[in-house]
Design the sequence.
């Protein structure tokens, strides 16, 4: 057992010893985490350590909340086709992608900010809040009921993210590659399954599953980056939760994307 593992175990033991009443809460969070962890279907020691003691720790802490959200939503398909979403969701996603495609030259203007950078992210909206910035895509100034976050991620050549987990399951992550490289190795791995952009530029998934984005090609990789409310019979409840949480974590955007450069 590594020293970090021992330190975590010792800290939990000390907390339970000092406050015995905390034991049911700690046990509940651990049980919820185990239930949540198994969804990625990767049970090796590295994956356990990554989830409970690495960059998945926030997802673990939020697992009771995420499991509650699962109860408010339709069955989680893990990886989705556009046709799996309700018509109103599809209309918004399709309209946003069409706007990005029509004005791809504006997105390509972000390339001038990429020399010397590994990965860049340009947010137009964050959890329903419009953000100031120089990138303006015509057609995206309307209000959207289901798409909550709108952005564009840019990977430089031969770059990749760490293997990681998203924190919240209120939304689905929708990525669309605007200019797939038909020869290079550009893909995303989600819970042990690989999706190549050259096969299909659109990919929708539950980003609390373990995943990694890779651009092993010799060109920039541009992806539309959307967070879409999960299909639910209680959509108004999800919308209120997103609005409340979005306001609370606006300041944490730079924490979540600490290894990214913010583009404008």
Sequence:
């Amino acid at each position: 057992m590594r020293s970090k593992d021992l330190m975590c175990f010792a800290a939990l033991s000390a907390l339970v010893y000092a406050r015995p009443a905390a034991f049911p809460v700690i046990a509940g969070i651990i049980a919820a985490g185990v239930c949540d962890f198994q969804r990625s279907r990767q049970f090796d020691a590295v994956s356990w350590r990554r989830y409970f003691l690495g960059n998945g720790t926030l997802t673990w802490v939020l697992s009771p909340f995420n499991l509650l959200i699962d109860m408010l939503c339709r069955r989680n398909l893990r990886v989705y086709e556009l046709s799996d979403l309700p018509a109103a969701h599809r209309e918004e996603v399709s309209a946003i992608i069409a706007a990005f495609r029509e004005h791809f030259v504006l997105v390509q203007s972000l390339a001038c900010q990429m020399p010397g950078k590994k990965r860049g992210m340009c947010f137009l909206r964050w959890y329903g809040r419009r953000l100031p910035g120089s990138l303006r895509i015509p057609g995206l100034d309307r209000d959207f009921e289901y798409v909550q976050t709108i952005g564009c991620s840019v990977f430089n050549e031969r770059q990749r993210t760490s293997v990681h987990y998203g924190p919240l399951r209120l939304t689905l992550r929708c990525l669309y590659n605007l200019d797939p490289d038909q020869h290079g190795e550009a893909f995303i791995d989600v819970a042990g399954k690989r999706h190549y952009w050259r096969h299909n530029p659109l990919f929708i998934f539950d980003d609390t599953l373990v995943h990694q984005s890779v651009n092993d090609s010799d060109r920039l990789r541009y992806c539309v980056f959307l967070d879409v409310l999960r299909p639910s019979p209680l959509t108004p409840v999800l919308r209120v939760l997103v609005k409340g949480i979005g306001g609370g974590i606006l300041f944490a955007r730079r924490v979540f994307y600490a290894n990214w450069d913010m583009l404008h």
